[in-house]
Amino acid sequence: MKIRDMVFVALFTAIMAALGFVPPIFLSFTPVPITLQTLGVMLSGSILGARLGGLSQLVFLLLVAAGAPILSGGRGGLSVLVGPSAGFIFSYTIAAFIIGWGIMKFRKPTFAKILTVNIIGGIILVYCVGIPVQALVMKIKLIQAAKLGLVYIPGDIVKAVLASLLTLSIRRRLPRRLLPYSIEK
Fold it and tell me: Which of 20, 138, 146, 166 lies at 20 to 30 Å from 89 by C-alpha?
């Protein structure tokens, strides 16, 4: 692995940790908080591509497992990885990889294409993993957990739009030699 790639992985791991400093919003009816960290997942996949985006989230997950309090609200450690949020957290690595893979398939990504990939990988995939685990841990029916998840969708769509806008802006302004993969301008 090139030093540039290691720097990108470390940078996006740090961005995820920084997004964890934004206090979570806890709702009275669900133990899964609203956080900004899915924005970091979308950005890492969109900007770094599949391999490096997924790797940045894997490093983040390993730091959380080691006890680093870098999840929103200063959470970390193995107990978080067996709680109601576990499925969402575990999906970060897969989501970043899928987002990066999807965007890398486009010769010339547009806002609409990037947004679509962010919604599929950063929202739908995360929910498909997170909601069943939440239902299992909370010992509730899957449909009930899915209904609880509806409250997160508007905020996640805003995060997907923001990630898509930032991705286009960053990728168009940085010199190609600095980017992990190229797109047409």
Answer: 166
